UniProtKB/TrEMBL annotation:
This is Pyrroline-5-carboxylate reductase. It comes from the Eukaryota. It catalyses: L-proline + NADP(+) = (S)-1-pyrroline-5-carboxylate + NADPH + 2 H(+); L-proline + NAD(+) = (S)-1-pyrroline-5-carboxylate + NADH + 2 H(+). NADPH binds at N56. It comes from Chloropicon roscoffensis.
Length: 268
């Protein structure tokens, strides 16, 4: 069974580790980790029963697969805390936004196989949307392993690396758009007389239920919208208000602008 190292043991790493353990893809005894934070090391040692090391180098050397789970601005310096010998022949997964495969390869020995993953924060509740882009050196078996690992915390989709910025703009940043929408729907409910707690719960459940209908029915969102929209009814009145305020164009522009920013960040 694969031995796994987390280089960085923050909340995303914790969520992934919990998913791997719960779905029995990687047992806690096969998980190694290091983090500069005492508190994060304690979570992995005491709650997850993983092996916590005294350095990134030791964690990686003890594993077959390493997950780079640090912030993008710290990735280069962190990678250099691991000796080249420890990186040799490793499958290296990076969840750092904006860090390209070429950049990752420049930090590692030629024998390392790189896979770039863009998960999103619903990973923390087992509902991530993760996009996977592989380097030329990564094998089909490597890709299948990565898909199997990340399927424990949500849905996985393989894409060309050139599409990762668009993934970042859509699903990477998307939860924030949806949180904003839920907050606004809740505000509308409060304005219409609902208590705040009731309004927020109804708004969140409505978003979750609507998303599940799209995924499980396979119907186009427009078709599902039309199923709710009766002639001269309440829903078409609400949709007309959304169109009047440019809601559709705002969401499209949000994804486009976030994608552009992701491209800018990858060049820094």
């Amino acid at each position: 069974m694969v031995r796994l190292a987390f280089v960085g043991a923050g909340q995303m790493a914790e969520a992934l580790a919990k998913g791997f353990i719960a779905k029995k893809v990687v047992p806690s005894s096969h998980i190694n980790a290091f983090d500069i934070s005492d508190a994060r090391r304690r979570v992995f040692r005491e709650e997850l029963k993983a092996t916590v090391h005294d350095s990134n180098d030791s964690a990686v050397a003890s594993s077959d697969v390493a997950i780079l789970a640090v912030k993008p601005q710290y990735l280069s310096a962190t990678a250099q805390t691991v000796t080249p010998a420890s990186w040799e022949n490793k499958l290296v997964l990076s969840i750092a936004a904006g860090v390209t495969i070429d950049t990752l390869k420049s930090l590692l020995p030629a024998s390392a196989r790189v896979v770039r993953i863009m998960p999103n924060t619903p990973c923390l509740v087992g509902e991530s949307a993760s996009a996977i882009a592989t380097s030329e050196e990564a094998t089909s078996e490597d890709e299948e392993l990565v898909r199997r690992l990340f399927a424990t915390v949500g849905t996985t989709i393989s894409v060309d690396e050139g599409l990762i910025d668009a993934v970042t703009g859509l699903s990477g940043s998307g939860p924030a758009y949806i949180f904003l929408m839920i907050e606004a729907l809740s505000d509308g409910g409060v304005r219409s007389g609902l208590p705040r707690g009731v309004a927020t719960k109804l708004a969140a459940q409505t978003v979750m239920g609507a998303a599940k209908m799209v995924l499980e029915t396979g119907k186009h969102p427009g078709e599902l919208k039309d199923m709710v929209t009766s002639p001269a009814g309440t829903t078409i009145a609400g949709i007309a208000a959304l169109e009047e305020h440019g809601a559709r164009a705002a969401f499209i522009d949000a994804v486009t602008k976030a994608t552009q920013r992701s491209k800018e960040l990858s060049k820094l």
